[in-house]
């Protein structure tokens, strides 16, 4: 390990340089990292990076899923719950089934159970890749919300398929009623354990004498403890982490101080930045090891590449068909139930949703977690071929779909799907309403202090100009107490506003919340 430490440091520097290059040329950084890893793997005497299959899920998945749960908007998830659920469960199952049937029919020695193993691995699209691409192009909030919500749940559904398929391969049988009971426990047990442990951590943050550093360390421990607890009782660790993360995220202002929130954001962004960078680099670096394994299974490189291309084609087509099918079902359902958006999306939105099917972190982690040997001592059948096909799928979807997605978004006119109110205008309106609320609150609750406190009068003048700020000047203790009270009431007003106005983009609310946190933190240094 230590003899390769300089290599790991060099790899980190390469990752940073490539991500900066990707931002400069406006290309999704996972694409460059995978290609760079592939190129580095052909350099002579490059150390092999090997991770124990049992640890791959535990190292990478919990923090990445937890951070995603803190980032996503629960309000938007609930608003688009039907289409998100259909993409996260139905579309994933259709993709896995399509892959299983084609692999079983085309690839020699590939049983249906092995087909579902492969299908479970490659069926979930990667949120990081899509997010990196969408950063450079403007898309309607509808599309980004659906993709964010889908990315949280499709990992869980695909890994459940993967787990059942692995059991079928190991036991060579599939008992339906046992599978149904196990499936129910994985879903409901995972949700329950995630919510329970999330609630316990929330109480720990709130009632223990923590500071910002302790809060951040606790937040780093949370996803691992939730995941481990759920997996120990054979429920879904992925669902547990997602549910626990959503619970804590939506209550963050109740148990975390402004300092903990501000510092925690920076720590978590840096952590996920490094983890994602290493994972995508690892995808490319692993190819020589996977290729050598194909020789053991007596599979030619050309045949394996052909299988990979075929499976990639099946995934793209099945997701595209499922995307239009999901929208068609929604259009029919709007005659019987209330839907989030009754407008007809036409062919544009389903096409973009269907084309954002890049694979990445979860697919690699699932493939690498396949054990080398079964419990009976025999080698896991077709393991290296599954790994190679997964690599080809990740590479092709990242390069083909990843590079062409920005072109399609710009080429297809999506103006009719944008929110009626521009984001900046909505933010300014919210800021105006918040300023009015602040003035009303100050005048109603601190009328006596206003007459005698010139600093408070100055603050009111600023709110009247909608500047929503305070100078870095020395202020009295009394004004600090009043201003902290005001900030707390503003947060509660924003939370209520977010609940009441279902059309308001939650990112605007969070932006204003972040500003209030900064304002509170400034008071500590005044």
TrEMBL record:
UniProt-listed InterPro entries: Cation/H_exchanger_CPA1, Cation/H_exchanger_CPA1_bac, Cation/H_exchanger_TM
Transmembrane domains' residue ranges: 6-22, 29-49, 55-74, 86-107, 113-137, 183-202, 236-253, 265-285, 305-331, 352-374, 386-409
Compartments, record wording: Cell membrane
Keyword Plastid annotated: no
Domain of life: Bacteria
Predominant subcellular localization, coarse grouping: membrane
Membrane-topology annotation of the record: Multi-pass membrane protein
Record has Repeat as a keyword: no
Domain Cation/H+ exchanger transmembrane: 14-410
Pfam family, one: Na_H_Exchanger
UniProtKB keywords: Antiport, Cell membrane, Ion transport, Membrane, Sodium, Sodium transport, Transmembrane, Transmembrane helix, Transport
Family stated for the protein in its record: Belongs to the monovalent cation:proton antiporter 1 (CPA1) transporter (TC 2.A.36) family.
Primary role: Na(+)/H(+) antiporter that extrudes sodium in exchange for external protons.
Name of the protein in question: Na+/H+ antiporter
Lineage of the organism: Bacteria, Pseudomonadati, Bacteroidota, Flavobacteriia, Flavobacteriales
């Amino acid at each position: 390990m230590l003899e390769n430490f300089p290599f790991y440091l060099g790899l980190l520097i390469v990752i940073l340089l490539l991500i900066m290059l990707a931002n400069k040329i406006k290309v999704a950084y996972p694409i460059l990292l995978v290609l760079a890893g592939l190129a580095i793997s052909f350099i002579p005497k490059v150390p092999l990076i090997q991770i124990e299959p049992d640890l791959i899920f535990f190292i990478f998945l919990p923090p990445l899923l937890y951070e995603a749960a803190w980032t996503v908007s629960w309000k938007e998830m609930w608003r688009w719950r039907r289409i998100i659920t259909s993409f996260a469960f139905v579309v994933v199952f259709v993709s896995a089934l399509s892959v299983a049937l084609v692999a079983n029919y085309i690839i020699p020695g590939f049983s249906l159970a092995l087909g579902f193993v492969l299908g479970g691995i490659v069926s979930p699209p990667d949120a990081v890749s899509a997010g990196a691409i969408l950063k450079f192009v403007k898309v309607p909030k509808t599309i980004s919300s659906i993709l964010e919500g889908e990315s949280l749940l499709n990992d869980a559904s695909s890994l459940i398929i993967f787990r059942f398929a692995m059991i079928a391969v190991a036991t060579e049988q599939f008992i339906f009623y046992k599978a149904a009971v196990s499936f129910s426990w994985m879903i409901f047990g995972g949700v329950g354990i995630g919510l329970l442990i999330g609630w316990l951590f929330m109480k720990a943050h709130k009632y223990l004498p923590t500071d910002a550093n302790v809060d951040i360390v606790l937040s780093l421990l949370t996803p691992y403890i939730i995941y481990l607890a759920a997996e120990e009782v054979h429920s879904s660790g992925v669902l547990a982490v997602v549910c626990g993360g959503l619970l804590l995220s939506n209550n963050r202002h109740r148990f975390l101080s402004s300092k903990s929130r501000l510092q925690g954001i920076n720590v978590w962004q840096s952590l996920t930045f490094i983890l994602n960078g290493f994972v995508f680099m690892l995808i490319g670096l692993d190819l020589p090891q996977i290729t050598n394994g194909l020789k053991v299974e007596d599979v030619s490189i050309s045949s394996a590449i052909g299988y990979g291309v075929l499976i990639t084609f099946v995934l793209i087509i099945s997701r595209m068909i499922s995307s239009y099918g999901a929208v068609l079902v929604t259009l029919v359902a709007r005659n019987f139930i209330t839907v989030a958006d009754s407008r007809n999306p036409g062919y544009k939105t389903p096409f973009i949703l269907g084309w954002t099917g890049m694979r990445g972190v979860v697919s690699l982690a699932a493939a690498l977690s396949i054990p080398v040997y079964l419990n009976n001592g025999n080698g896991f059948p077709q393991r290296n071929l599954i790994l190679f096909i997964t690599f080809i799928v990740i590479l092709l979807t990242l390069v083909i779909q990843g590079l062409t997605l920005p072109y399609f978004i710009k080429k297809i006119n999506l103006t009719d799907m944008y929110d009626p109110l521009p984001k900046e205008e909505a933010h300014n309106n919210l800021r105006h309403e918040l300023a009015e609320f602040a003035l009303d609150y100050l005048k109603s609750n601190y009328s006596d202090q206003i007459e005698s406190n010139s600093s408070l009068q100055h603050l009111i003048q600023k709110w009247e100009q909608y500047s929503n700020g305070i100078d870095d000047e020395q202020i009295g203790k009394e004004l600090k107490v009043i201003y902290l009270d005001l900030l707390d009431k503003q947060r509660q007003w924003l939370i209520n506003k977010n609940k009441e106005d279902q059309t308001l983009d939650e990112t605007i609310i969070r932006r204003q919340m972040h500003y209030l946190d900064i304002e509170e933190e400034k008071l500590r240094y005044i």
